[in-house]
């Protein structure tokens, strides 16, 4: 069953009427309403197109958080073959909010790391809603170092509200773990590509997104803090989250202009949650392009390009 966001109410009403007409058209009462169904389908499709062509930053935030949006496991299932997940940081334990392993992408070996939010209530709790603890980032470091040793490119799929801020995570060195993971990204001698598939929140996102090539879905968000968190700090009022979202420049369009992301992947009308397969395929094509551009570079050139990319952010505005 499709979940509608608050601002999608006009589309929801049209599609509800459309479902009623479709039910009538399949009944045995002899009434032909095919033309009316066609007109309403076109009207609903146009309404959806118009709505999504002019989303505000806050509306994009809601789309990025949509529970039916494709998650890490969906991307791996469609894009990666022979995926073998590896668990544990070899220091404390396993963290299921950040998953990683090795597989094949378009026939070639790849290391894949990403946040998993979960699609059901049980899965969301098990994966801690995609908010990783220190052992998750230390596992990411372990996998990146392993990939670097064997010359295997690294793909990061980012979808998190931020690293887990709990007392236990802080006690085990959350800030240090995030810093070490970011450092591991920067030191890789193999190409790395990061994709912001939903939320890219704070250091929890940057820890695995410090890549040669950063891709962002059209309705994803990427920011140093959530709009609610920023509103709470700036105005001590979380109801001003919409204002914070507008001023923080968190959308893909803003971030491409600022040089933070390299490519925007268009989403189907209505967002990636309506057409998951085509969205995932589009991301796969963008990832392949990103790796292809880096294929002929040696390790020193890869590190230099990555360093120059981040040092150049904000210089030419």
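Sequence proposed for the structure above (317 residues):
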């Amino acid at each position: 069953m499709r979940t509608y966001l608050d601002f999608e109410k006009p589309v929801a009403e049209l599609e509800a009427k459309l479902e009623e007409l479709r039910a009538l058209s399949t009944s045995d009462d002899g009434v032909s309403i095919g033309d009316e169904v066609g007109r309403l389908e076109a009207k609903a499709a146009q309404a959806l197109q118009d709505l999504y062509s002019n989303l505000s930053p806050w509306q994009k935030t809601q789309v990025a958080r949509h529970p039916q949006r494709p998650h890490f496991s969906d991307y791996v299932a469609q894009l990666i073959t022979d995926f073998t997940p590896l668990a544990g940081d070899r220091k404390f334990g396993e963290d299921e909010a950040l998953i990683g392993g090795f597989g094949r992408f378009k026939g070639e070996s790849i290391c894949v790391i990403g946040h998993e939010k979960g699609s059901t209530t049980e899965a969301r709790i098990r994966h801690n809603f995609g908010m990783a603890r220190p052992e998750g980032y230390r596992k990411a470091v372990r996998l990146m170092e392993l990939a670097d040793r064997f010359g295997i490119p690294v793909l990061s799929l980012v979808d998190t509200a931020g690293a887990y801020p709990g007392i236990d995570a802080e006690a085990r060195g959350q800030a240090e773990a995030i810093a070490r993971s970011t450092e591991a990204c920067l030191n890789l001698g193999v190409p790395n590509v990061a994709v912001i598939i939903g939320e890219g929140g704070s250091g929890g996102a940057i820890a695995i997104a410090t890549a040669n090539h950063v891709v962002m879905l059209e309705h994803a968000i990427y920011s140093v803090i959530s709009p609610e968190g920023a509103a709470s700090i700036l105005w001590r009022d979380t109801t001003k989250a919409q204002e914070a979202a507008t001023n923080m420049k968190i959308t893909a369009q803003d971030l491409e202009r600022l040089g933070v992301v390299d490519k925007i992947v268009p989403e189907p009308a209505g967002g990636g949650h309506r057409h998951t397969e085509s969205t995932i395929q589009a991301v796969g094509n963008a990832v392949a392009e990103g790796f292809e551009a880096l294929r002929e570079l040696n390790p020193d050139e890869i590190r230099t390009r990555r360093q120059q990319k981040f040092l150049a952010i904000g210089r030419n505005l």
